[in-house]
Amino acid sequence: MAASPSRRASFRPRRDKSLKHAYLIAMPSRQKLIFAIVVLVIAAITGLGALYLVRGPGGPIGSGTALVGGSFTLTNQDGKRVTDQDFRGKYMLIFFGYTYCPDVCPSELQVMSAALDQMGPEADRIQPIFITIDPARDTPDTLKVYVSNFSPRMVGLTGSDEDIAAVAKSYRIYYAKAKGTENQKDYLMDHSTILYLMGPDGKFVKHFTYGTEAKTLAEALHQSIS
Ligand SMILES: [Cu+2]
């Protein structure tokens, strides 16, 4: 729609005064577009707010439990194909990241490992899992060396691009090559930093935000599984 200069310049909410929404109809198209965008943004914020209320800050309430997680088939650090079913009976403490991550992933894995150590024997009921969102570089061998640096009990999972895209989608994890580094050999990845606790039945229990300290995490995990 090519707005003529005269139409742009002649805007006045005067015509169609008889109509109820005369001001809307009289808006020039650019203003209508801005109005529509504002309405959409408000709707999106309201929607997110509602989702937050349903799910709550510490995890979902009621029907919200179906929102995160699901079945997956991936390859572990020993090169063996595994599914979510292989972890049934244990809680899964899942973090998504990549081994080349300069800061966030190492510190989160350290927190996970420290929290489990603080819990003592109770921690045997929790399986810490690191799922890569950079399968191109994170081979089983790379993961094996990496996760063992943090904890002997940690499992590292990788897979094909499709495997990773599917599991990330079901866990609502965002990931992408970081802007400006896409074409470098040592590119960086942007990724979500949510830590998930899934139940022995594979269902969502609780999530933790990045920055939770080991002691706090240990206490929360203890509460969640006892
Ligand atoms: Cu990271």
Regarding CATH, which class of the largest domain?
A: Alpha Beta
Number of domains: 2
Task: Name the strands of the widest sheet in spatial order.
Answer: 2-1-5-4-3-8-9
Please state the oligomeric state of the protein chains shown: single chain
How would you characterize this protein structure?
The protein has 226 residues and is α+β, with helices and mostly antiparallel strands. The chain has two domains: 14-55; 67-225, Glutaredoxin, CATH 3.40.30. It is built from seven helices and nine strands; from the N terminus they run αααβββαβαβαββββα. The protein has helices spanning 5-9, 22-25, 29-55, 104-119, 140-150, 161-170, 214-225; strands spanning 73-76, 81-83, 91-97, 126-132, 155-158, 175-177, 189-191, 195-198, 204-208. The strands form two sheets. It has a seven-stranded mixed beta sheet. Strands 6-7 form a two-stranded antiparallel ribbon. Helix 4 (104-119) crosses helix 7 (214-225). The model is unreliable at 1-25 and 50-63 (pLDDT under 50).
Q: What attributes does this structure have?
A:
226 residues; alpha+beta; 7-stranded mixed sheet; two-stranded antiparallel sheet; disordered N terminus; binds copper (II) ion
What's this entry about, in short?
With 226 residues, the chain is an alpha+beta fold.
Give the SSE map.
Elements: H1 5-9, H2 22-25, H3 29-55, E1 73-76, E2 81-83, E3 91-97, H4 104-119, E4 126-132, H5 140-150, E5 155-158, H6 161-170, E6 175-177, E7 189-191, E8 195-198, E9 204-208, H7 214-225
Parallel strand pairs: 3-4, 4-5
Antiparallel strand pairs: 1-2, 1-5, 3-8, 6-7, 8-9
Bound molecules: copper (II) ion (CU).
